[in-house]
Amino acid sequence: LNLPAPSGGVSIALSSSDSSATVPTSIKIPAGAGVATFSITTTAVSANVNVTITASYAGVNKTAPLAVLAPALMSLTLNPTIVADGASSTGTVTLDSPAPTGGMSVTLASNNQAATVGSNSSVTIPAGKTSATFTVSTSAVTTLTTATITATLGNVHRSATLTLEPLLASFTVAPNSVKGGVTATGVITLNLPAPSGGVSIALSSSDSSATVPTSIKIPAGAGVATFSITTTAVSSSVNATITASYAGVNKTATLTVAAPLLTSLTLNPASVLGGASSTGTITLDSPAPTGGLTVHLMSNNQAATVGSTVTVPAGKTSATFTISTSTVTAAGNATITASITSTGAGSRTAVLHLIP
């Protein structure tokens, strides 16, 4: 007031131009007072409203503007932010104030067909609430990709990124080279823990020298699984490609199945009288394959003769052969050579002493 209220006080009439802002019909200012306050109650609105509040007394009107603001879109979040194998994520839109009567519709969109936000592409926040959730449905992908989910309310846009990964992350073999007959281990790793019910990973091998199960089941919640790769003896080294497959994604690893190597050649006895025989023994570092393994033999002295080859039986690591000698008039030596290949690669030698 310009002056303190007179004896008995004064009653100031109040009014509002819109129902979104309500005021008392009047306020009594007591005698001697020069200032009074009152509450203006607002309700949630779907669009901004400019309200005029009027105070009237003795033909004098004083007005003041009040802007009643509609809720604004404050945030959009996703949980989880990384999914695999067609799993879904939950989106949450949040307002900075409660939604009005009838609720508030927020428009949704995705920039990737592998992540969809529903056929109606919107979510309604109920009256009096500040948030609502929606489902982001995804389809399985074969490569890492992202989807931008956007929520729009009026001129305000909020976005969040959803990462979509193939479930099958990697496949390795350890060790990556074994002798035939030795078992290797395959290791499968997922990008995320296996979902409810687990997942079945198909397995295959390019060569019969390395066999794998047809599939392996990874239980729910697990991210890694191992399996055994059984190998058989081979006559020459083989590179087998082991493949793990799931939902269109193939991961491969190479396992080398190595052939036996000739580790030693011994003679017993190592010295003989001319005309006597000696026994040679060849030893491999791993068992011979089915059908046996042929080892080539050679002598550099006609006084000590050997057969052209000796066969190590399948599953065995050694074999013997006879060295026949003839009478000699002077002491001499014969070098006996054994090699798996006819070219002499990887050969082993032993010296037989010939005594007259």
List keywords for this structure.
356 residues, 5-stranded mixed beta sheet
SSE inventory with pairings:
Blueprint: E1 10-16, E2 21-22, E3 26-29, E4 41-42, E5 49-57, E6 60-68, E7 73-79, E8 82-84, E9 89-95, E10 104-110, E11 115-116, E12 122-125, E13 131-138, E14 145-153, E15 156-165, E16 168-174, E17 177-179, E18 184-190, E19 199-205, E20 210-211, E21 215-218, E22 224-231, E23 238-246, E24 249-258, E25 262-268, E26 271-273, E27 277-284, E28 293-299, E29 304-305, E30 309-312, E31 318-325, E32 332-339, E33 348-355
Parallel strand pairs: 8-15, 17-24, 26-33
Antiparallel strand pairs: 1-3, 1-5, 2-4, 5-6, 7-9, 9-13, 10-12, 10-14, 11-13, 14-15, 16-18, 18-22, 19-21, 19-23, 20-22, 23-24, 25-27, 27-31, 28-30, 28-32, 29-31, 32-33
What does this structure look like?
The chain has 356 residues and is an all-beta fold. It is rod-shaped, with a radius of gyration of 45 Å. The protein is built from no helices and 33 strands. The protein starts with 9 loop residues before the first strand and ends with a strand.
User: Helices and strands: which structural class?
Assistant: mainly beta
Biggest beta sheet attributes? 5 strands, mixed
Number of helix segments? 0
Number of strands: 33
Cα end-to-end separation: 145 Å
Beta-strand portion reads: over 45%
Q: Please state the CA-atom Rg, rounded to the nearest Å.
A: 45 Å
Q: Please estimate the helix content.
A: under 10%
Strand order of the largest sheet: 8-15-14-10-12
Q: What general form does the structure show?
A: rod-shaped
Mean pLDDT across residues? 95
* Poorly predicted spans: none
